[in-house]
């Protein structure tokens, strides 16, 4: 089994990757800043286990096609893909600035759809795999403090529901994870 971790520098993604790593799975760790990925993965490689770090600027649509293709080429017999991309950066500005609002929507929803569409098509062609999408409880209702971010995550959750329905006749599983508030760097920003 292999695991491609998209948004690998997030604390939730890193904890998940460590569990897969501990169980001898190959890892493809994709992040905006691969320097923020723990060195734990490069220093404790098991025999035959592969670990690759790959850079993608999720806010730049030009990076998404190459990243999708790299993820697809990482597939083994039982591919898992974890989507843990998210940003609340600029949420206060987004209330009054259309470009800041668009940036939040792009990184938390639109660009993930662009990234995932070819990956899902490849999984569907194979007929197996697992897509794990971390969304947010902020998408459950519009909150005064982060409604632009919440709207993007609501879109991501609905997109995942649609994928799950689309792929229901295959052995491709789509799991949406909606954690409550977790003490991470993102919550503290």
List the helices and strands and how they pair.
Layout: E1 2-6, H1 11-22, E2 26-31, H2 40-43, E3 51-55, H3 61-73, E4 79-83, H4 91-94, H5 98-126, E5 128-134, H6 147-166, E6 171-177, H7 185-188
Helix pairs in contact: 3-5, 5-6
What does this structure look like?
The model has no long low-confidence stretch (mean pLDDT 89). α6 (147-166) links the parallel β5 (128-134) and β6 (171-177). It is built from 7 helices and 6 strands. The chain has helices spanning 11-22, 40-43, 61-73, 91-94, 98-126, 147-166, 185-188; strands at 2-6, 26-31, 51-55, 79-83, 128-134, 171-177. It is globular, with a radius of gyration of 16 Å. The protein has a 6-stranded parallel β-sheet with strand order 3-2-1-4-5-6, sandwiched between helices. By secondary structure, the chain is of the alpha/beta class.
Q: Provide the residue-averaged pLDDT.
A: 89
Note the total helix count: 7
Largest sheet: 6 strands, parallel
* Strand content range: 15-25%
Distance between the termini: 34 Å
Extended strand count: 6
Q: Element order, helices and strands?
A: EHEHEHEHHEHEH
